[in-house]
Amino acid sequence: MARRAERREAAGVVISRLALVPALLAAACAPVTEQAPAAASDPAVSGALFVAGKFAGTLAKVDLASGEEVARVASCANPHELATSPDDKHVALACYGGTSVDVFRTSDLAKVKSIDLGENARPHGIVWHENGHLYATAEGRKSIFVIRNPLGETETFEYATGQEGTHMLAIAPDAMHAWTTNLGSRTVSRVDLVTRRSPLSVTVGEEPEGIALSPDGEMLWVSARGSDMAYALDPKTMKRLKDVPVGDFPLRIVVRPQGDFAVTSDLADGALSVIDTAAGAKVRSLAVSSREEAEEKVQVTILFSADGSRIYVAETMANTIAEVDFASGEVLRRLPGDGGGDGIAITE
């Protein structure tokens, strides 16, 4: 137990440094490991992976077929989460060290728009919805923003959560509601985007951070890094339906596009926990790195390929993005993630 507490304390220290002091990191931090060797090509894979380098203040594009970085540009201070447009022509970046959401062309990474969310915004979580609108948390303002028509005559609308550390978010398929995790308040909030009723906030574990909605919008999944748990909630009532023990320090959670599995990124043990969503139980663990390597690599953001066959795992301190075969659990390649790759997005 003592060793486990020490590991969790170390993981907490790493996360505190990475997420809670963005201005210092952006100014002072640099990649701490040697550049990873070139990834092997895979002609069976197409599309591109976009990587936000949180230490270097960069945005990079990695060609998935060749496994090589093909473009990189300066972005903003401590860039974090990324979201691609429905037509894959643009990628939006949350500037956690500042106040804006910046939009880049996916073809050449040219910046086409910078949308300011106001003083102390610190945007973090971001979703580009099928309706064309952008949605972003503004942690410093305890709110979320709806950004309508982000590529044209942009309008922004702010919705207060009243909670500390509004960090990650999910948006309903019909865009009528949003859900956020609030690290500081230990809560998850349901925000009505139409009637503007007061948000409904419920306590969910210790340090809830990861959040994901099932494709049909019927189940909300939350990972609480301080509890080593994943929770299934009814997104309408916010009632807790299932409690699922997972790995050590589950920082993020994603749902497979098919809706059959949810996966947590377990930072402190370097693994992914796979949850059968129907059964509400962990069914296996995928080792991305060893526990010893986990403290050096610090895996953070995870996402599925569109067909659900692969998982991409940002190993922030190793400057790599692990590509994992979901069926076998094998790490297929390690792609470039230079500059402290954290936020990732994909086009196919």
From TrEMBL:
<dbReference type="InterPro" id="IPR015943">
    <property type="entry name" value="WD40/YVTN_repeat-like_dom_sf"/>
</dbReference>
<protein>
    <submittedName>
        <fullName>YncE family protein</fullName>
    </submittedName>
</protein>
<dbReference type="InterPro" id="IPR019405">
    <property type="entry name" value="Lactonase_7-beta_prop"/>
</dbReference>
<dbReference type="Pfam" id="PF10282">
    <property type="entry name" value="Lactonase"/>
</dbReference>
<dbReference type="InterPro" id="IPR051200">
    <property type="entry name" value="Host-pathogen_enzymatic-act"/>
</dbReference>
<dbReference type="InterPro" id="IPR011048">
    <property type="entry name" value="Haem_d1_sf"/>
</dbReference>
